[in-house]
Write a structure and sequence with these properties.
Blueprint: E1 2-8, H1 14-23, E2 27-30, H2 31-37, H3 44-53, H4 66-73, H5 77-105, E3 110-114, E4 129-134, H6 137-148, H7 152-160, H8 165-169, E5 174-177, H9 182-205
Parallel strand pairs: 1-3, 1-4, 2-3, 4-5
The protein binds dephospho coenzyme A (COD) and adenosine-5'-triphosphate (ATP).
Adenosine-5'-triphosphate (ATP) binds near residues 14, 32 and 147.
Amino acid sequence: MYLIGLTGGIASGKSTVARRLVEHGAIHLDADQLARRVVEPGSTCLQSIVDEFGQGVLRPDGTLDRQRLGELVFRDEGARARLNAIVHPAVRELSGRLIAKAEEEDPQAVVVYDVPLLVEAQVDHPFDLVVVTSAPKRAQVKRLVEERGLDPIQAEARVDAQVSDEERRAVADVVIDTGGTIAHTMSQADALWVDIERARKAARERPSG
Ligand SMILES: CC(C)(COP(=O)(O)OP(=O)(O)OC[C@H]1O[C@@H](n2cnc3c(N)ncnc32)[C@H](O)[C@@H]1O)[C@@H](O)C(=O)NCCC(=O)NCCS
Ligand SMILES: Nc1ncnc2c1ncn2[C@@H]1O[C@H](COP(=O)(O)OP(=O)(O)OP(=O)(O)O)[C@@H](O)[C@H]1O
């Protein structure tokens, strides 16, 4: 297996890059989706969230009111840390299991683990490559406002709830500039795939022992 950790700020283009790598043959795992799975009704995580933040973060049907909880945690660092302490260990455990399963099913698989908080949550799966998508903050805020309907204050708060691109670049093997056109992002993703294929081929041909 070849394991890629893909990270970057909110609305920086991680999913866009991941989708392109999937078109080339990679398997995609998404930490945001896993974070939704671990808080489904009946989960211990959801119960811990209710214990911590009260019944008010549940919708009438018993599912998590994500908007309500988001309003709480993106303006309060302490609340965010308490939520992270509940959700992140469960996501870590589930992602570890799914990565192991992907390897079992296909030892040659290229797995892209899209994990927005790779730096913040100190995700330490044994990545072969860490890829960071990077766009200027004003582009991130514009996308959140225009495409996801956040107001500019909320959008800024979400960007500011994350580490800076400098901190992400410090752990990156590859940085993809996602501040330009989509076509520019795609061509960098395509070039990355060529490099990955080359590295894997060289590893296969290397005499072992
Ligand atoms: C606060 C919640 C309920 C808001 O839900 P919502 O549906 O509005 O957003 P969604 O989950 O789709 O996240 C969108 C983006 O917000 C950013 N984000 C999410 N959680 C966090 C966090 N704790 N700290 C910083 N940024 C975050 C990420 O860039 C993420 O891609 C939700 O994000 C959550 O449960 N967060 C804690 C778990 C977590 O850290 N998830 C991120 C990856 S593991
Ligand atoms: N050069 C670019 N590269 C990537 N995305 C771009 C670019 N220009 C505009 N966009 C738009 O920005 C948005 C980025 O969203 P995407 O879901 O890929 O980001 P993300 O980092 O996965 O977001 P999130 O952290 O919320 O999961 C998309 O709507 C995309 O069309």
